[in-house]
Design brief:
binds flavin mononucleotide, 16 helices, alpha/beta, 2 domains
Length: about 425
């Protein structure tokens, strides 16, 4: 009987109902071509996920401006370029009930210097990690902020034209939207900063501009931090107030995550410090349960779901409407279908293993990214990657914290951590 919970369709305010409660959360694929267009590997990868049973697939972050990218290999959608390739990507779900949404992002200051030596942000506050591998950003002017807002809307409208079923604004994990929301990175005292209401204005204006561009029947979602878990940063209360305001704008789905690359709680496998410690499997569920008392907008909790019991409990007590899954689907792309069929009760536990012990803790993002590349080539995932592959991923994706000479080398060459 409880199986029905995961199989039940979910009606959204805009667009058709989602066929079930599984959502593949964004994972940066880094499979763009040299001109930042989508490659065939993305089509292969998303065909695999579409056949894997999740009712909603959210792409990895697509950038709105080729001058400001978060990672090597990012796809950029900013004009009429690559229209056929984007349309082919959008068609990857054909023949399945899965819906495909594009995640849209601007990195702001959270980008390596070698990719973006002239990064921009709400204020000229550098990242507190990375030992200078990211440039100190320049504060955006009022007119530039309006331009960035317009770019978010243009990208959404191009995604709609290409055939994507919806869009999601990346408002989490320390990228530009999240930089505007945090008092640590937004020191402005104008229309765009100074108090919570002005700090959230940027996101609300992005949503308004997007809605005007795509019309009323097209789903727009936002991925938002429950908090950034940093002193003086974006708080749980501020986050809930943002979501109330977003609900007023007619948003269709809120995905709850948390953390930034300065405090990367979204990659914990267990509860982040400072979060309430009720024994829930998905570590942002407690926040989501409180949120449900304030808003009725559909909610997707992502981070830590691994077992059918944990997923069903979160759906049954109303903490979430959708079960967001990222890392498990890099390794087991058909996990949702197997859970729906009763063929399994949990994700297979995997530990990133590279063959180099010291690398294992540092290359998580790269390890999962390498699994995506295998799936994009039409291969199976692999619990053990070759040492060469691991070192390569380390050099091109990099750790979050340098440890030892190899760690420092990886960090100095990193193309930013994923997502
Ligand atoms: C390789 C990789 C890439 C990611 N890229 C993104 C991204 O582009 N956008 C995003 O919002 N989150 C990104 N994330 C974070 C995931 O969406 C998710 O929030 C996080 O992995 C926790 O969920 P999980 O426990 O199911 O993996 C990425 C995670 C991984 C492992």
């Amino acid at each position: 009987m409880t199986d029905d919970l995961l199989a039940r369709p979910l009606a959204l305010p805009a667009g058709p109902a989602l066929p079930n409660r599984f959502a593949k959360s964004a994972m940066s694929e880094r499979m763009g071509d040299r001109d930042f267009g989508p490659t065939d590997a993305l089509v292969t990868l998303y065909r695999r996920w579409a056949a894997g049973g999740a009712g909603l697939l959210i792409t990895g972050n697509v950038m709105i401006d080729r001058a400001h990218r978060a990672e090597t290999g990012n796809v950029v959608l900013e004009g009429g370029r690559h229209a056929d390739a984007f349309a082919a990507w959008a068609r990857s779900t054909e023949g399945t009930p899965a819906r495909l949404w594009m995640q849209i992002n601007h990195p702001g200051r959270q980008t390596p210097r070698f990719l973006d030596p002239a990064s921009v942000a709400p204020s000229a506050v550098p990242l507190a990690i990375g030992g200078g591998t990211s440039a100190t950003p320049r504060a955006l002017t009022h007119d530039e902020i309006l331009d960035v807002i317009a770019r978010f809307a243009t990208t959404a409208s191009l995604a709609q034209e290409a055939g994507f079923d919806g869009v999601q604004i990346h408002g989490a994990h320390g990228y530009l939207v999240s930089q505007f929301l945090s008092p640590r990175s937004n020191l402005r005292d104008d229309d765009w900063g100074g108090d919570d209401e002005r700090r959230r204005r940027f996101l609300l204006e992005v949503v308004r501009a997007m809605r005007a561009a795509v019309g009323p029947g097209y789903p727009i979602g936002v991925k938002l931090n429950s908090a950034d878990f940093q002193r003086g940063g974006f708080t749980e209360e501020a986050s809930m107030a943002v979501i109330e305001a977003l609900e007023g704008e007619g948003i269709d789905l809120i995905e709850v995550s948390g953390g930034t690359y300065e405090k990367a709680v979204m990659f914990e496998e267990t509860m982040p410090q400072g979060a309430s410690s009720e024994a829930r499997e998905a570590y942002f569920s407690d926040y989501a349960a409180k949120l449900r008392e304030r808003v009725i907008v559909p909610v997707m909790v992502t981070g830590g779901f691994r077992t059918r019991a944990g997923m069903e409990a979160a759906l049954a007590d109303g903490a979430t409407d959708l079960v967001g899954l990222a890392r498990p689907l890099a390794f087991e792309p058909d996990l949702p279908q197997r859970l729906l069929d009763g063929a399994t009760d949990a994700a297979t536990p995997v530990k990133p293993a590279t063959g180099f012990k010291t690398l294992d803790g540092m290359v998580q993002g790269g390890w999962y990214g390498a699994q995506l590349k295998r799936l994009g080539r039409g291969d199976e995932s692999s619990p053990k990657l070759s040492r060469l592959r691991a070192v390569w991923e380390c050099l091109t994706t990099g750790p979050r914290k340098p440890r030892g000479p190899l760690g420092r080398l990886c960090l100095s060459r990193r193309s930013s951590s994923p997502g």
